[in-house]
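can u do me a favor
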């Protein structure tokens, strides 16, 4: 039986570190420092869980309908890992 995989998207120094909790629960954590890296990794392996912070993009350079740091990642998640549980 393989362990569950969790993507931890860490874009802020204030992101809480739950690595020990994941380890005790038998969850393999993959730490990613940006949503772009998370999308790239998503194409290689599918996570069972995703933990990320939400940053609202008021007054930023997000184009079109994208209003946060997670928009494109969440769209990609629907395609590559629709069964994944997301905690934001």
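np, heres the sequence
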């Amino acid at each position: 039986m393989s362990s569950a995989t969790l993507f931890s998207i860490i874009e802020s120094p204030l992101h809480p570190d739950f690595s020990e909790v994941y380890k005790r629960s038998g969850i393999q954590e993959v730490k990613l420092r940006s949503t772009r890296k998370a999308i790239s990794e998503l194409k290689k392996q599918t996570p069972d869980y995703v933990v990320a912070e939400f940053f609202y993009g008021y007054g930023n350079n997000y184009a079109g309908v994208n209003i946060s740091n997670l928009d494109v990642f969440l769209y990609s998640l629907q395609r590559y890992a629709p069964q994944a549980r997301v905690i934001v």
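The mean pLDDT is 86. hope that helps!!
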